[in-house]
Amino acid sequence: MMNLRNHVHLALGYFITAAFLGLLLRSFQIFEFPFNYKFIVHGHSHIALLGWVYVGLTTLLFKLFLVQEGLNREYRRIFWFTQITLVGMLVTFPFQGYALFSIVFSTLFLVASYWFTWFFVKNVPDGLRRTSSYQCIRFALIYMVLSSIGPWLLGIIMNTMGSGSVWYRLAIYFYLHFQYNGWMVLALMGLFFYVLEQRNIIIPKKMFTTFFWSMNLGIVFTFFLSTLWIPPSIVLNILGGVGALLQLVALVILVKFILAGYFDLKNVLSGFQIKALSIVLVLLFIKMGMQLVTSLPYFSKLASIILDFTIGYLHLTFLGVITIALFTFFDHFKLLEIGNKAFTAFVMGFFLSEGLIFYKGIAAWLGFGIFDGYFEFLALASLLIFVSLVSLLLPKWFGD
Predict the structure, then answer these.
(1) What predicted TM-score, i.e. pTM, was given to this entire model?
(2) What single string gives the DSSP state of each residue in 85-122?
(3) CB of 191 within 8 A of CB of 133?
(4) Mean pLDDT to the nearest integer, 93-97
(5) Average pLDDT of 151-171?
(6) Number of compact structural domains in the chain
(7) For burial by CB atoms within 10 Å, which of 96, 239, 276, 363 has the most?
């Protein structure tokens, strides 16, 4: 019998590795290291997104939709092939950046993700195909595949126009947008509907249809927010703003469904899980509000000039929305025990880090200097995140 808890532990191991690389990056302003900063960034981002989130999400999808179908053998092949590609990226990106071997392993990872998508869509039982949860997850997988157009184009762009080209940056943003906002966020929403469906709590069809298409159109249109740093076009601002509004509409519909009295959330989730998802919900509103603000020409230009705003937004989505939601579902499905002390330490590290990153961006915007010891505090926030993750993997050592 396959122990999927071990798969989640492995995903958490990747997250700890990414957090350590993040701590190393935060320490570059304090200590001298014989490493290439950009190479570490590449390793940090790839292992965080593909090691932690991808492995975590695909493990959940297999457990919830396919584990009863007798497909363990084929899933193992996909899983271990994926691990080879991830370890390959882990031992190449931090030392050589984008070069032959790191590109080979990242390309093989794309093949692994296509393999999993085909495997999943092919084998989902007919009874689940009609559910709201599956509709969200199916589109999430479509966005994951769609996002891979960005990496495929990077090689062509680098060989023809170079890494300084506008198209190089657009290809990266295309990939990140449909990874974060399409694949990851929509898959997590699908998992939330799955949790409700297991208790026979079904969102009304009309309400779901409005939510679903508002969310998906919003995902597509908000990509244009990633293009506003190129020579301005009011049409792109309008499309991005419409996308942000549509996503806010979808989120309001979801909240309305939760609060409408169709069910009591306390009968579905534990107190900790409700608290964690409440944080996720607040962060989603902040994220979508930021998207709406950056559709305005002044703020879109500001976000493109001040890198800290972009980094803060990406970390808010990854560490806040996606990671805390993953913690919630791992805890709910008993794949990873989330201790209160470890979770509290993670949330504290996250909010401290976000506050410092946005503070530095605001300082650059308004023209005042950062306080003495800023980089030391930022490194301490990263250290707190790292320690909290280690305590999740080794709960007997740290206790609760």
Answers:
(1) 0.95
(2) HHHHHHTTHHHHSSSHHHHHHHHHHHHHHHHHHHHHHH
(3) yes
(4) 90
(5) 83
(6) 1
(7) 276
Residue range(s) defining the domain that contains residue 12: 1-124
Q: Any idea what the Cα angle at residue 349 is, between residues 345 and 354, rounded to 5°?
A: 150
Distance, CA of 253 to CA of 129 (rounded, Å): 23
What's the one-letter identity of residue 131? T
| Tokens encoding 51 | 């090691």
On whether residue 2 sits in a domain, the answer given is yes
Answer whether 196's CB lies under 8 Å from 203's CB.
yes
Alpha carbon distance 390, 117 (integer Å): 31
218 lies in a domain?
A: no
Average pLDDT, the chain: 92
Of all residues in the chain, what percent carry a pLDDT higher than 70?
98
Where does the pLDDT of residue 400 fall: very low under 50, low under 70, confident under 90, or very high at 90 and above? low
- Of the pLDDT bands very low, low, confident and very high (cuts 50, 70, 90), residue 32 is confident
Residue 269's region, left for phi above 0, alpha for psi from -120 to 50, else beta, is beta
Q: Would 10 be classed as within a structural domain?
A: yes
Q: pLDDT tens digits for 117-153?
A: 999 999 999 999 999 999 999 999 999 999 999 999 8
Beta carbons of 223 and 149 less than 8 angstroms apart:
no
First to last CA, the chain: 30
Size (the chain), residues:
400
Q: How far apart are CA 143 and CA 148, in angstroms?
A: 9
Phi first, then psi, for residue 274 (nearest 5°) are: -65, -45
Q: Which residue has the higher pLDDT, 278 or 169?
A: 278
Establish if 373 belongs to a structural domain.
no
Q: Which of 277, 227, 217 is nearest to 247 (CA)?
A: 217
Unique residue bearing structure tokens 């001040």 = 306
Amino acid at 363: A
Residue 35 carries which DSSP code? Answer: S
